[in-house]
């Protein structure tokens, strides 16, 4: 019997649909197909291994930087420049610093300069690098039932807390130990109310706190959503506000106060405390984000044509402290000092930011139009 006829039932069909009656051809194709499968599987395994070995760092940061959309713009630029990916865990500044203390992050990017300096002084982080700034704003119902609209954050909170405020206005606090929450506590204290020590007691949830004061213990985005649905006042960072779409009838009511300056800093977690941290890769991000390339990437992030974050002034980067606030008591002298110590991209910054950090010219300065004119 012809061998070809005896093996017909095991023959293969080629890609054209014809039947190959040669067993040697079938065997060749079977071996080739098996080899191709092995090569493909090997390639996939190699690709997976390469992906697993791609360098990355873990960053503990704030909800404001994440929810403003900045990281979606900034981190791809860093990866393109260095090959290092950044995995962000967004939370309040206090929680982010705690994560660094535990060694669960390689780098911390937050916005509470006083807490950051303590973090470094206590040996948990390396040098604090000022990166950028924007400002806080007081948000509230456009109708402004508490009549707080203006440029003085302390006076506005005083009105909200005043017993004379019979409008039933409420204030929503982040209450999450974030940088925004820390700033809010400072402003309340300046208004004569120490929220931090006014501990709620059983049966009196707001003991020692203003009527209508509530805390959500949540991030900036959720806090804005709650305020939009309840008509509450709250303190927000401008970046997240600009990226927030569910505004309902909320509007910016207080802006332009120098005390609303909001600075961000970055710190590599100290490898002497946690040897496993990727200090070299983390330092690469810290160096890049303050470099001309990193600063250009930050400046190019805009929403509706409006820049959200600005380069920390040169003198500020050296001192790592916020510029001195304006003072009615010291008047032009303090303003002149601030003018000498702070340099800003005032042409690009929103007018309220110019008012915060680009002080008015003095009448004695050449070309000045008066004490209230802006540069």
Overview of the molecule:
The structure is a single chain. The chain is of the alpha/beta class and 375 residues long. It is built from 15 helices and twelve strands. It has helices at residues 3-6, 23-53, 63-67, 70-82, 93-102, 113-121, 153-161, 179-190, 220-230, 238-243, 279-289, 292-299, 314-319, 332-341, 351-357, and strands spanning 56-62, 85-91, 107-110, 129-141, 171-173, 213-215, 234-237, 250-254, 261-268, 302-303, 306-307, 310-311. Strands 1, 2, 3, 4, 7, 8, 9 and 12 form an eight-stranded mixed beta sheet that branches. It is globular and about 60 Å long.
Percent of residues in β-strands: 15-25%
Radius of gyration: 29 Å
Helix content: 40-55%
Question: How many DSSP E strands?
Answer: 12
Query: How many angstroms does the end-to-end distance come to?
Result: 104 Å
User: Count of DSSP helices?
Assistant: 15
Mean pLDDT: 77
Structural class: alpha/beta
What is the makeup of the main sheet? Answer: 8 strands, mixed
Contiguous uncertain segments of 5+ residues: 1-21, 318-347, 358-375
Overall shape: globular
The helix/strand series, from N terminus to C terminus, equals HHEHHEHEHEHEHEHEHEEHHEEEHHH
